[in-house]
Amino acid sequence: MDADDRAVQLYTLEYQKAADRYENIYRSMWTIFSYLTAIAAGLLAFGSDTIEPYALVAIAASPLLFWFWTTYLPLDYYGNGTARRLQDLESLLNTRFQTELKHFSDFWHPLSVISGIGKAFKKRPARALICALWGQVRRARFAIWLFFILLHVVFLCGLWKWHKSGQPLFREKPAAATPVGRSR
């Protein structure tokens, strides 16, 4: 086996492992999100009788905000690094071994919402600017950030309104009423 064959095998192995890693990162990220969404829904469904409503909104938003800060942002950063490495590997393999890999190169977008919108505003003709902005708005990353900005606002408003209401976190349950016509 010559050096080129070994290099192809090693690069192929690295490419396969990196592609698997990329898939696993996002699969686990969204699996965790689905679990925490179920927890938030359970809190809303079963906490409405005992927890003050504004506090309940803040408490139910907490698992999703926890996911955003502790899972989405770090894993998305790691996934973006993996995607960059896959793009570099495709470029290297295409140049050195005359392959035509384009799985990650063809679908490459700016990784940051802010940088993507910033690049869109650098387009000079109005039509190009609108197309570039629309390209950013259509991406899942934009929708995720928009949703979580709004969820932060809902969380803070719920906390503020609960604090202003002066109500305790848990509502007192009313005493059980005796049926009409019965005495104890």
Helix content: over 70%
- Whole-number total of structural domains: 1
- Low-confidence sequence ranges: none
> What is the end-to-end distance?
94 Å
The percent range for strand residues is under 5%
Name the shape in a single word.
elongated
Instruction: Report the C-alpha radius of gyration, rounded.
Output: 26 Å
Overall average residue pLDDT: 87
Order of helices and strands: HHHHH
Q: Can you count the helices?
A: 5
Determine the structural class based on helices, strands and strand pairing.
Answer: mainly alpha
The biggest beta sheet reads:
none
Total beta-strand segments: 0
Could you walk me through the main structural features you see in this protein, from its secondary elements to its overall organization?
- By secondary structure, the protein is mainly alpha-helical.
- It has one domain.
- The protein is 74% helix and 0% strand.
- It has 5 helices and no strands.
- The longest helix is centred in the first third of the chain and has 45 residues, at 3-47.
- The termini are far apart.
